[in-house]
Amino acid sequence: MSCVTRLPLLTSFHDTSDRPHHKFNVQFLRDRKKQNEFNCEVKNRFATLEGLLEETVSNHWTGLQETWKNAFTHVLGKKGKQHKEWLTLGTWQKIEKRKELKQKINQCQDQQEKDELRAKYWEINKEVKKSARDDKIETVRTQDGRRGRTSSFEK
Q: How far is CA 46 from the centre of its chain?
């Protein structure tokens, strides 16, 4: 008598392409200053490609891809966590200030200085929350305006 056992084949997907496994902070392109910096960076990188001799299409295509990737990485940076797209750049700057203050509080040894930093942190935290709330309301209003509805935030 023969015993045949069936084992399920466990196959897992392995991405073998050379695609990056990260996203870029494209929301920074909303800021005019960053947008101009990015455009300048891309133009400079493409200007260096123009001087090259005629190559094969695949080499040229990889050069273009690398140019875009390098420009995105250099100017915009990688997306580390999920950013809420409705927050404005000013709110993100306040969040960064709050984060720096929190680090200072954690590293501080003097109790009196720590209390002063906590008071500053509390004020900036209130500003961040108010700014985020205002950004959210403004986003909802603009979306409702595009749809032709009245906003639930309007009184």
A: 24
Query: Is the Cα torsion angle 70, 74, 76, 79 positive or negative in sign?
Result: positive
Q: What pTM does this model have? A: 0.48
Q: What is the 3-state secondary structure (H, E, C) of 4-15?
A: CCCCCCCCCCCC
The 10s digit of each residue's pLDDT in 73-108 is: 777 776 666 667 788 888 888 999 999 999 999 998
- In the chain, what are the domain boundaries? 26-76, 89-145
Pairwise CA distance, residues 55 & 60, whole Å: 6
Angle at 139 between CA 92 and CA 39, to 5 degrees: 55
The string of pLDDT tens digits covering residues 51-76 is: 665 666 677 777 777 877 778 777 77
